[in-house]
Design brief:
Largest sheet: 13 strands, mixed
Oligomer: single chain
Structural class: alpha+beta
Radius of gyration: 34 Å
Shape: globular
Number of helices: 39
Strand content: 15-25%
C-alpha cells in the first residue's frame, strides 16, 4: 500500500522521513515486541522528483508499506485529532495512494527486516568521500626489507627492488579503496590501447604498517609492509552488460597466480610493496584514505631503495643446489627459511659456514636447531642480527642436548601419531611447517620407517585461510593453473619430488592431501603412489566414478588409532541388514563380542594411560577394517573374540592376503556421553516449530550462570572441564580430582583450610569459561542440561528374530551357546517412534534411563523435519531378552518399518553419526513436520576406469565448488530475513541444495550456485558480527529473532594473561615466596613424604632441571607459533591457550579455528606425553613396581618445585602442571597398590620438609 506525503520541507532527506515514520510504526500502538515471531514492520520511502535547485525533494513523497491493513490502521490513527507526523518540525499531510506498489517490492518489504536508516545514511556519506580519492602511481615495486650486515641494528631497513612495474605510455596504476570488501586496490592498464586491466588487491587486515617519504630527487613514495602477498586479478576494460544484475556482477574478474612469467618466479619471495607517487601532494590523500579505510595512519620514514637481486634465477639456482646437498631434515628447514620469507638468499650465504659446520656433527640435531631458528626469527627483536639469532639458537640447543643426552632416555613413540612435515600451497607461495605430531593412518603406519617420504599438503589462500572469493571473482583459472599443476605433476621440495597420494574424507573438506616421494623398500621394491593405492584393495565396482573411487581410497587415510589384529576365523560379514534400501535401519552397523571390546580397550588404554582411570568401557567403536567402515556394537550373545559385519559396511574388497590377519583401526571410541548444545541452525528451526524466544533466553541465562559460577567449587570446575572437553592434554581435570580428594577446595567453598591459590590453574579456568561463553554468544552453542549428544545405533533384536525365522540360528559359531540357552525367550524390540538411551559417566555414577517425550535431531539442522519427537522407553523390562539393555551412552533406534529414524534426521545413518536427544520440555517442538526425502541423484560416471588424473580433476572442481558452508550460511540468513523462516520456499530450495552439497564428495555432482536464492538485503543480522574482526555498524541490523536476542544477551570480558605467557614475552616479576609454600604443595606434602621421606630440595638439584625445562619451553614455544591462526609475527598462542586447549583469537572462519585447535591439541598431547614418560619416566605399565613409581614421584616432585620457582618465565607454569599430574598419578598408583603403611600414625612435616614422627613430637 502507498501512503502519499505532501507539504514536506524541500531540504528533508529520505533518512529523516523514514526515521519520523519509524518512530510511529514501531511505537507501542502498532508493534508489540513480546508477541511470538513479532518484528517491526519494514517500509520504504521514495522521493519521486528532486526539488528546486537540486534539493532532495519537491515537497512530496511516498511511503510504501507491505500490509494494506496496517496502512489503513495507521491512516485512521493519523487522522485523529492530535496525532501528527512531523519532519524537521513541520507537519505532514497524508493521504491514501491511488497506485498499487510493485508486487516484488511488496514481497521484499514483507519478508525482510527493518534496518535503521541512520546506518545507511552514514554509509552513503562515507562512500561519497572514499569515491573521490584515487592516488596516481608512477611505479609499483615488489621486494623485501633488509639490512646490510654492517648496518647498525637501529638503522632503518632498506628496500630491495626485485620486480618493478613502470610504464611510459600511461601512469603505472591508481590506488583506491574498495569499501564493500575492505581492500586497497591498485588498478593497472591503459584504457586506450588495452582490453584488460590488472589489479593488485590488498586486504586491509593484511597490512602491518605503511610509511611514506621522499628520496633526494624529490620523488615521493609509500612503502607497505604486508603480512602476506596481495591478490592479483584481471578484468575486461569494457564489459558488455545484459541488464540482469545477477549475471552482470558475477565472475567478471579473473583471479591470477602472478602478473607475468618473471613475477611468477620472484613473487613468492618478494611481495612487499613500494609505490612511487605521481604527485607529492598525494601523500595527503594517502593519509585520508587510510583514515577512511580504518588503517593505522602512515608514518614518515626514510627507506632507501636498492637493487640487490636476491631472487634472480642464477642466485636461486645456486642456493637450491646447496640446499639439496643436505639430508632431508636439514634441507627442509633451510628451504622453509627461504620460502616462508624469513631470510633472503644474502642472509643464507652469511650463515652458510655455520650451517655446514653444524650439519657435520649431527644432521638430525641440525634440523631441530633450524626448526627452532625459524620460530626465533618470527619473533626476533629489531636489535638482533640474523647471525646473532642463529648463534644464540645453536648455543642454547647444544647446551640442552648435552644435558639431556647424558640421561640416556629413549623417546616414547605413539603409533597413533606421526611427526609429519607440512606444506601449504597458496596462490603464489609454497610454505613449509613442521615436523609436528599429526594423527596417523593405516598407510603411514605400514611405512613407519619411511615417514620422511610422506608430507601433508594443504591448499589455502594467501592468509592461510580457506578459499573465499567474492561473487565478482572467477577462481577457476587460478585453481586449474596453479593447483592443478601441483596436483597432477607434484612439487619439488628440498631436492625431493612429491606426488599426490590420497586424502581422508575430513581432509577433503580442509583441502588437505597426502603426498609422497618414491622410495625403495626391501620387500616391495620401488614404492610409488600408484603401488600404494593399488595395494589397498579392489575398487573395480566404483572406479568408473572418480569421486566415489577417491572416497573409497580415502578410508585408508582416515585418522585412526591402531588396536588389535584378528584372524579370518574371528570375523564374518554375513550379518543381514534390516529394513529396506536406501533407508536401511542398520546401514553401517556391525557387532562385536565383549571379549573383543575389552581387548581393543586395553590397547587404547596402553596408548592413553589416563583412560585407565575409567570404570566403564565403550559400548561402541567407530572402525576402519580392511574395506569396511562403520561402527561395531557390543553383542553379549557373542563368545570369545569375534566381530560380525554387514554388507552396507563393505566399501571395497580387500586383497585376500590381507584378510588372513588384519588390524581393527579405531576412528573413535564412544565412551562419554557428549555434551548437548544448541546451535544457530537448530535454534532457528526450533523457533519456527513453536519454541518461544523466552525459552531460549531462559536456557541461556541458566547456562551463563552455570559457567560463571563453576569456578566457585571444585566439583563445578571439574564438571565444566569434563562437559566441554577442555584441559585434557595436560590432564587438568584429573589433577583437580586428586587435589579435591586430598582436601583442597576453591576460594568460595572454604570447606577446608587448603584453598586453591595457583594463579595459573585459576587463569586456565577463566580461559575455559571465556571459551564456553564465546561459543554460547557467537555460535549459539548453549549447553542443555536435560539433553545428551549420543552416537546412534540400531536395535539388533529384530535381526535375531529374522535369523530365527529363517532358521539361521547356528550360522555364527560365536553365539552358539547363547542360541541353545535363550532361543525360546521372548525378545523385546523397540517399536516405531521409540528410542532407548541410558546415560552413565565412565568415571563413576549410576545409570540414568531417559524416559518420556523427547526430541531427536542431527546436524546440520536445515529442514524443519530434521527435528522429530519420539518416546524414550526408559528401562527395558527385566523378563524379556533385550539386546540393548546394557548399552551405555548411545541412542538406540527402532529397526522396524520401511524407513529408518536416522535417515529422517538430515539423512543420517548408524555408521558413527551422533544425534541430539533433548528431554527439556521447554525446548520440545509444538509443531511436527514430515522429514525431508531427497534423491541422492546419480553419481557422475565417466564410463571408463578412473586414474589419478581423474581424481585430481575432481579435487580441482571440489576446491571451486565446495559450497556446503556457503549454502548453510545463506539458508540461515534467508531464514532470518523471511517472514516464514525455515518454512519459506527459498529455505526449502536451500535445504535441498545443502543435501546435495553433503553428497557431493561421494557422487561428484556439485551444487549449481545459479539455483541458490539470493539475499534480499545487503545488511546482515547483528549476530553475524562474530565472524568479522572489524565490524562496521552500517553492515548490520538488529535482528528480532531469537538468535539476535541471544547474541545481545551476553557480554564477554576478555582475559588478559601476563606478557610472560607468550613466546619471547618478557618474564614476570621473579618469585620471592619460599619453595613449596603454595597451597597445592602443602596439601600434597604428607602423601609425598610417606614415599620420599622428605620434600625439600637442594637448590643445586632444582637447578639441574634447567636443560629439561628449556627443552620443554622450546617445544611449547614452537606449538604457540606453529598453530596460531595466521603466520603473522604479532599473532601467537599463549601458554594458557595451549594448556586448556582453545584458541580465543577472533577468526572469520570458525572451521579453520577448530582445525587449528585440533592440531594444537594433538601436538600438545605428544609434548606432555614425552615429558611425562620419557623425561620424568612415569611408567606406562599397569603393574609397575614400587621402585619405578617412587622414582617417577621423586623426579616429578622435583620438576614441580622447579616449575613453581620459575613460574614467572614462559613455560614454567605449564611445566609445573605436567609435573603435578605425574605427582598425583604416582601417588594414586602407590595408594592403590597398598605399598605404603596405612596403619601407622600420621606423620607431620617440619619447616625443612623432613618427615617427623608425631609421637616423638608429642614427647
Amino acid at each position: 500500500m502507498e501512503i502519499e506525503v505532501s507539504d514536506l520541507n524541500y531540504t528533508a532527506t529520505v533518512w529523516e522521513v523514514k526515521r519520523a515514520f519509524a518512530e510511529i510504526f514501531h511505537g507501542d500502538l502498532f508493534y508489540s515486541p513480546a508477541a511470538h515471531g513479532a518484528r517491526p514492520i519494514n517500509f520504504q520511502v521514495q522521493f519521486r522528483e528532486e526539488g528546486p535547485g537540486s534539493l532532495p525533494n519537491n515537497g512530496h513523497a511516498v511511503v510504501i508499506v507491505p500490509d494494506r491493513r496496517f496502512g489503513d490502521d495507521f491512516l485512521r490513527s493519523a487522522f485523529r485529532r492530535g496525532n501528527q507526523v512531523k519532519v524537521n518540525g513541520r507537519r505532514l499531510w497524508l493521504s491514501k495512494g491511488q497506485k498499487r506498489p510493485p508486487r516484488g517490492l511488496v514481497e521484499t518489504l514483507d519478508k525482510t527486516p527493518y534496518i535503521d536508516p541512520t546506518q545507511e545514511e552514514e554509509r552513503e556519506a562515507l562512500l561519497g568521500r572514499i569515491g573521490q580519492i584515487g592516488i596516481i602511481l608512477d611505479a609499483i615495486q615488489f621486494g623485501v626489507y633488509f639490512r646490510f650486515p654492517d648496518d647498525p641494528p637501529t638503522a632503518n631497513r632498506r628496500f630491495s627492488n626485485e620486480y618493478e612495474i613502470r610504464r611510459s605510455d600511461t601512469f603505472s596504476g591508481k590506488l583506491c579503496f574498495d569499501y564493500n570488501y575492505k581492500v586497497l586496490r591498485i588498478e593497472m592498464g591503459n584504457c586506450v590501447t588495452e582490453d584488460t586491466s590488472t589489479h593488485i588487491v590488498i586486504n586491509t587486515s593484511d597490512i602491518k604498517k605503511i610509511a611514506y617519504g621522499s628520496n633526494p630527487a624529490g620523488e615521493c613514495y609509500a612503502c607497505f609492509e604486508l603480512h602476506c602477498p596481495p591478490r592479483f586479478e584481471r578484468q575486461q576494460m569494457y564489459r558488455t552488460y545484459t541488464g540482469e544484475y545477477k549475471k552482470d556482477n558475477r565472475a567478471f574478474r579473473e583471479r591470477l597466480p602472478s602478473l607475468d612469467k618473471i613475477h611468477r618466479a620472484i613473487g613468492p619471495f618478494a611481495y612487499q610493496l613500494r609505490l612511487t607517487l605521481n604527485d607529492p601532494r598525494s601523500r595527503h590523500d594517502l593519509k585520508t584514505l587510510c583514515h577512511e579505510a580504518g588503517i593505522r595512519a602512515p608514518a614518515r620514514v626514510q627507506i632507501d631503495v636498492q637493487h640487490c637481486g636476491f631472487f634472480r634465477y642464477d642466485t636461486m639456482r645456486a642456493v637450491r643446489e646447496w640446499i639439496t646437498g643436505f639430508e632431508w631434515p636439514v634441507a627442509f628447514q633451510l628451504e622453509a627459511l627461504l620460502r616462508n620469507g624469513l631470510l633472503n638468499t644474502g642472509d643464507l650465504y652469511d650463515l652458510r659456514g655455520d650451517i655446514e659446520m653444524l650439519n657435520q656433527d649431527n644432521p638430525e640435531f641440525a634440523g631441530d636447531v633450524l626448526r627452532h631458528f625459524l620460530e626465533k626469527l618470527q619473533a626476533k627483536q629489531r636489535s638482533d642480527t640474523v647471525v646473532e639469532c642463529f648463534k644464540n639458537t645453536v648455543a642454547r640447543d647444544e647446551e640442552i642436548r648435552a644435558s639431556l643426552s647424558a640421561e640416556g632416555v629413549e623417546m616414547v613413540e605413539s603409533k597413533g601419531t606421526i611427526k609429519c612435515f607440512h606444506v601449504i600451497v597458496t596462490p603464489t607461495r609454497v610454505l613449509l611447517e613442521g615436523p609436528y605430531d599429526t594423527q596417523s593412518n593405516r598407510v603411514i603406519r605400514k611405512y613407519d620407517n619411511y615417514k620422511e617420504n610422506f608430507v601433508r599438503v594443504e591448499f589455502r589462500d594467501e592468509n592461510s585461510m580457506h578459499f573465499r572469493w567474492p561473487k565478482e571473482v572467477d577462481g577457476r583459472s587460478l585453481v586449474k593453473q596453479r593447483f592443478g599443476t601441483i596436483l597432477k605433476e607434484g612439487l619439488e621440495i628440498a631436492g625431493r619430488h612429491f606426488r599426490f597420494l590420497g586424502y581422508s574424507n575430513s581432509g577433503l573438506r580442509e583441502h588437505t592431501f597426502w603426498y609422497m616421494s618414491d622410495f625403495e623398500h626391501p620387500d616391495e621394491g620401488l614404492v610409488t603412489p600408484d603401488s600404494i593405492r593399488n595395494g589397498l584393495g579392489d575398487f573395480s565396482k566404483v572406479n568408473t566414478i572418480p569421486s566415489k573411487y577417491a572416497a573409497r581410497i580415502a578410508q585408508a587415510f582416515s585418522g585412526t588409532d591402531p588396536s588389535v589384529r584378528i584372524r579370518r576365523d574371528q570375523w564374518d560379514d554375513t550379518l543381514a541388514d534390516l529394513g529396506k534400501g536406501p533407508f536401511w535401519h542398520t546401514d553401517g552397523q556391525g557387532t562385536m563380542s565383549p571379549g573383543l571390546r575389552d581387548q581393543i580397550w586395553d590397547v587404547l588404554v596402553k596408548a592413553q594411560p589416563d583412560k585407565a582411570k575409567l570404570t566403564l568401557k565403550p559400548s561402541v567403536y567407530q572402525i576402519r577394517f580392511l574395506g569396511f567402515k562403520g561402527i561395531i556394537v557390543v553383542d553379549e550373545t557373542l563368545d570369545g573374540v569375534y566381530m560380525r559385519l554387514r554388507q552396507t559396511m563393505n566399501k571395497f574388497k580387500a586383497h585376500c592376503h590381507d584378510e588372513s590377519e588384519a588390524e581393527i583401526e579405531i576412528a573413535k571410541a564412544f565412551i562419554y556421553p557428549g555434551t548437548a548444545r544448541l546451535c544457530r541452525p537448530l535454534i532457528m528451526v526450533l523457533e519456527d516449530l513453536g519454541v518461544s524466544k523466552e525459552s531460549f533466553l531462559a536456557l541461556q541465562e541458566r547456562a551463563k550462570a552455570a559457567v560463571v559460577t563453576a569456578s566457585d567449587t571444585m566439583d563445578g570446575t571439574i564438571e565444566l572441564l569434563r562437559k566441554h572437553d577442555l584441559g585434557n592434554s595436560f590432564g587438568l581435570r584429573w589433577i583437580l580430582q586428586h587435589l579435591q580428594r586430598a582436601g583442597m577446595c576453591m576460594r568460595r567453598e572454604r570447606t577446608t583450610p587448603d584453598v586453591m591459590d595457583n594463579e595459573f590453574i585459576l587463569r586456565l579456568v577463566r580461559y575455559a569459561q571465556s571459551h564456553i561463553l564465546r561459543e554460547i554468544k557467537h555460535d549459539g552453542r548453549i549447553p542443555i542440561a536435560q539433553a545428551n549428544q549420543l552416537v546412534g545405533v540400531a536395535d539388533e533384536g529384530p535381526a535375531y528374530l529374522q535369523r530365527k525365522a529363517e532358521g539361521k540360528e547356528k550360522l555364527c559359531p560365536a553365539n552358539a551357546r547363547w542360541w541353545e540357552e535363550d532361543r525360546d525367550k521372548e525378545v523385546f524390540c523397540l517399536k516405531e517412534g521409540e528410542i532407548f538411551a541410558c546415560i552413565q559417566q565412565p568415571d563413576g555414577g549410576e545409570p540414568i534411563y531417559i524416559e518420556g517425550q523427547v526430541s531427536i535431531s542431527r546436524s546440520p539442522h536445515i529442514h524443519p523435519g530434521d527435528v522429530q519427537r519420539v518416546r524414550a522407553i526408559g528401562k527395558p523390562p527385566d523378563d524379556k531378552v533385550c539386546f540393548f539393555r546394557n548399552l551405555r551412552n548411545v541412542v538406540v533406534m527402532n529397526s522396524m518399518g520401511d524407513r529408518s529414524l536416522a535417515s529422517c534426521l538430515a539423512g543420517g545413518d548408524v555408521d558413527g553419526d551422533e544425534f541430539l536427544v533433548i528431554k527439556d520440555p521447554t525446548l520440545l517442538p509444538i509443531r511436527q513436520t514430515e522429514p525431508a526425502s531427497y534423491d541422492a541423484g546419480e553419481p557422475r560416471d565417466i564410463g571408463r576406469e578412473s586414474n589419478v588424473d581423474d581424481i585430481c580433476d575432481f579435487l580441482l572442481e571440489f576446491m571451486q565448488s565446495d559450497v556446503m558452508g556457503l549454502v548453510a550460511d545463506q539458508h540461515l540468513i534467508i531464514a532470518v530475513h523471511r517472514q516464514y523462516g525455515t518454512f519459506d520456499q527459498y529455505c526449502m530450495v536451500l535445504a535441498r541444495l545443502c543435501s546435495q552439497a553433503v553428497d557431493y564428495p561421494k557422487n561428484g555432482v556439485p551444487v549449481d550456485l545459479e539455483k541458490m536464492p539470493p539475499k534480499l538485503i545487503r545488511a546482515k543480522p547483528d549476530w553475524k558480527k562474530a565472524e568479522d574482526d572489524d565490524p562496521r555498524p552500517s553492515d548490520y541490523y538488529e535482528s528480532t529473532r531469537a538468535l539476535g536476542a541471544l547474541f545481545r544477551n551476553i557480554e564477554i570480558k576478555p582475559v588478559h594473561p601476563p606478557e610472560s605467557s607468550y613466546p619471547n614475552g618478557p618474564s614476570a616479576t621473579p618469585v620471592l615466596e619460599p619453595p613449596l609454600s603454595d597451597s597445592i604443595s602443602r596439601v600434597l606434602k604428607p602423601a609425598v613424604l610417606r614415599h620420599l621421606g622428605r620434600t625439600a630440595h637442594a637448590d643445586g638439584d632444582v637447578a639441574a632441571l634447567e636443560p629439561l625445562f628449556r627443552h620443554y619451553a622450546e617445544e611449547l614455544r614452537y606449538i604457540c607459533v606453529t598453530h596460531a591462526l595466521t603466520d603473522r609475527a604479532d599473532v601467537r598462542l599463549s601458554e594458557e591457550e595451549v594448556a586448556i586447549g582453545t584458541i580465543l583469537a577472533k577468526c572469520t572462519q570458525p572451521r579453520w579455528r577448530r582445525e587449528r585447535t585440533h592440531r594444537m591439541r594433538v601436538h600438545a598431547t605428544q609434548l606432555v606425553r614425552q615429558l611425562k614418560h620419557a623425561r620424568l619416566r612415569a611408567p606406562l605399565a599397569k603393574d609397575a613396581g614400587e621402585k619405578e613409581l617412587v622414582g617417577a614421584l621423586r623426579r616429578a616432585w622435583l620438576a614441580w618445585d622447579y616449575g613453581m620457582r620459575n613460574r614467572a618465565v614462559f613455560g614454567g607454569r605449564s611445566f609445573a602442571l605436567v609435573a603435578l599430574g605425574v605427582v598425583c598419578e604416582m601417588l594414586e598408583k602407590l595408594e592403590q597398590s597398598g605399598q605404603h603403611e596405612s596403619d601407622e600414625d600420621p606423620d607431620t612435616v617440619d619447616e625443612g620438609g623432613e618427615l617427623v614422627d608425631a609421637d616423638a613430637e608429642r614427647t
